[in-house]
Design a protein that fits this description.
Blueprint (H helix, E strand, L loop, with lengths): L2 H21 L47 E5 L3 E6 L4 E11 L18 E3 L12 E6 L2 E3 L5 E2 L3 E3 L5 E9 L4 E10 L4 E10 L8 E10 L9 E6 L2 E4 L2 H6 L1 E3 L3 E7 L3 E7 L6 E6 L8 E8 L10 E12 L2 H5 L16 H18 L2 H15 L1 H16 L1 H10 L4 H14 L9 H16 L26 E6 L3 E5 L1 H16 L6 H18 L4 H24 L2
Parallel strand pairs: 1-8
Antiparallel strand pairs: 1-2, 2-3, 3-4, 5-6, 5-12, 7-9, 9-10, 10-11, 11-20, 12-19, 13-14, 13-16, 15-18, 16-17, 17-20, 18-19, 21-22
Helix pairs in contact: 1-11, 4-5, 4-9, 5-12, 6-9, 7-8, 10-11, 10-12
């Protein structure tokens, strides 16, 4: 096998390795993580406090009794939330306008599928593992399990209005905790105020921590899922290994979040001076994946008898739509995981998709239009690459003669090869360089399509009813070696066939063994693409068809 064949094989393997590094699923981490031991919590009891000493009308509280724990339901046009008096935490947040799945057309369905349900942002778990917990460090102890009283049994927020809930509890030391929630009917935003009131006859130095607990779901092939923090102007996204080790952020913290590909739960302090965020592992029973806690801690405050301290938060629990996140004015749009180097290209490609969607109303058609546009833009480079490959094919006989003549003199062979290239005006890397210019745009597109929220559950034609999901038309999951349970549909197979046809039409260079090796590539790519979102596979398939047409046209024109 000559040097060109070896180089071709190495380059092919590099493409596969880079592809896997970018798109392959991360190794699953153990679902059980050692939780840092906390200091024993102080059992809190409620003490009766005169109503007139409070700033507003709130219910009286009783002696702590977990049998008094109850739920408070908040209904709005956008979501249904359930809060519990156990810590005034969030127990459920179901998004009314977004379903967790979409019915698909499958010939052979091997697993049972539940009917689509509203997206649940707080999966079911025990009371002590619910988010929006408020932890108090006071006199060397930790209090995070107060049972609160609440000012209403339920709340319905009609359109164009704002509703509120007030939870009140008190520690054994006499520190009253008031948590006020404001719900806007037309936004996924909550405003939360936590007020600490000293009802004792001595100064106190409480330290408040707001906790959002979550779970990194197993899987996640294309984009990030887990805890993230905006600190020092950069978003840190923690993978399971980092969660297990724990990490602290202190510089200019803007928000902490738990997010996946399409949805986001974010907590932002309104006054961020000297706040600290700690991300650490946490065992959350009866859940799959890796549990974690985002802990937002404020500096210790001195509260005199009869005095109070207030802490304000902006909370967002909803879709990762850029226009909604920008409206929060806390740089929340940085939660969308655009690449550091190719982010501008990714945003430009998504902008074009949204522009054409306003004309077509079908994101599948938009992807086809984008494929055609990119092919037109890079037509001169592709044509130059193809012509270079043709010229290299023409001088193959002369190259073989030189290789045979100077097979024992490597230095002389290289000299003669360079002289041949110069004499025939051929650039040996001319077929590769134009493709390298296109590579950043291709990678940007592969990263951008899964980030488009509007592609989620977006239909195309026939059986392709969700461009963000894999094609499952033949079978929804088929056990395959290495890949595990993998969906199988016609679109990845058509893509592989088109890739094979494109390979056969391309000029061959080197010996036949190199050509056979290159023919294996389409088969490998079929297996790689089986689990890819249909939108990505559709783009690649269209690109292959356009390349086939381009090569056919070039051959017919004799150039």
């Amino acid at each position: 096998m000559d040097k060109r064949a070896i180089i071709a094989i190495i380059l092919s393997m590099l493409v596969i390795i880079i592809w896997q590094l970018i798109f392959a699923p991360s190794p699953k981490e153990p679902s059980v993580i050692e939780e840092q031991e906390e200091q024993p919590a102080i059992e809190a009891r409620r003490e009766e406090v005169p109503k007139e000493s409070r700033d507003e009308e709130v219910p009286t509280y009783t002696e702590r009794d977990e049998s008094n724990v109850r739920d408070v339901v908040v209904e709005t046009p956008l979501y249904r939330a359930v809060l519990t008096t156990a810590g005034a935490r969030l127990k459920s947040w179901a998004l009314s306008e977004y379903m967790d799945s979409k019915k698909s057309i499958v010939l052979w369905r091997r697993k049972e599928v539940d009917p689509p349900q509203p997206i649940e942002m707080v999966p079911g778990r025990g009371l002590k593992d619910l988010p929006l917990a408020t932890q108090l460090r006071l006199n060397g102890g930790v209090e995070r399990d107060l049972v609160f009283d609440v000012d209403t049994a339920g709340l319905t927020v009609e359109s164009d209005s704002v509703g509120s809930l007030v939870f009140v509890g008190q520690t054994e030391e006499g520190l009253e905790v008031v948590k006020r929630f404001w719900f806007n009917s037309d936004q996924y935003r909550i405003d939360l105020e936590v007020e600490l009131i000293n009802r004792a006859d001595r100064p106190m130095n409480p330290q408040l921590t707001m906790i959002w607990s979550g779970v990194v779901a197993p899987g996640g092939r294309y984009t990030f899922s887990g805890p993230s923090v905006l600190s020092a102007g950069e978003v840190a996204r923690l993978k399971p290994k980092e969660i297990r080790k724990g990490r602290t952020f202190t510089e200019n913290v803007k928000w902490m979040a738990s997010d996946d590909n399409y949805f986001l739960s974010m907590v932002a302090p309104q006054e961020a001076d000297a706040v600290r965020v700690d991300v650490q592992g946490r065992e959350i029973p009866e859940t799959e994946g890796v549990g974690f806690e985002n802990r937002l801690t404020f500096p210790e405050k001195k509260v005199m008898p009869g005095g109070h301290e207030k802490f304000s938060f902006l909370i967002y629990i909803g879709p990762k739509l850029p226009e909604l996140l920008k409206g929060l004015d806390i740089e929340a749009e940085k939660a969308i995981n655009f690449g550091k180097w190719l982010g501008s290209i990714e945003k430009g490609l998504l902008f074009f998709l949204e522009f054409t969607h306003g004309l077509t109303g079908n994101y599948g058609v938009d992807i086809i239009i984008l494929s055609i546009l990119l092919k037109i833009v890079f037509w001169p480079l592709s044509r130059k690459s193809y012509k270079s490959m043709q010229e290299m094919q023409k001088i193959q006989p002369e190259m073989k003669m030189l290789q045979e003549k100077y097979k024992n003199d490597r230095e002389r062979l290289n000299q003669e090869m360079m002289a041949l290239y110069k004499r025939r005006k051929v650039n040996p890397v001319g077929g590769c360089l134009p493709m390298l210019v296109q590579f950043p745009f291709l990678i940007a597109l592969y990263k951008a399509l899964p980030l488009s929220f509007n592609l989620r559950h977006a239909p195309f034609v026939l059986w392709l009813q969700d461009l963000s999901a894999a094609d499952t038309f033949f079978v929804d999951e088929l056990p395959l070696p290495i890949l595990g349970n993998t969906p199988v549909g016609p679109l990845p197979l058509l893509m592989g066939v088109s890739m094979l046809l494109q390979q056969k039409m391309s000029p061959t260079m080197g010996d036949p063994r190199q050509a056979k090796m290159m023919m294996i590539m389409p088969i490998m790519f079929i297996f790689i693409f089986l689990g890819f979102p249909s939108g990505l596979v559709l783009y690649w398939f269209v690109q292959n068809l356009l390349s086939i047409g381009e090569q056919y046209y070039t051959k017919r024109k004799g150039s």
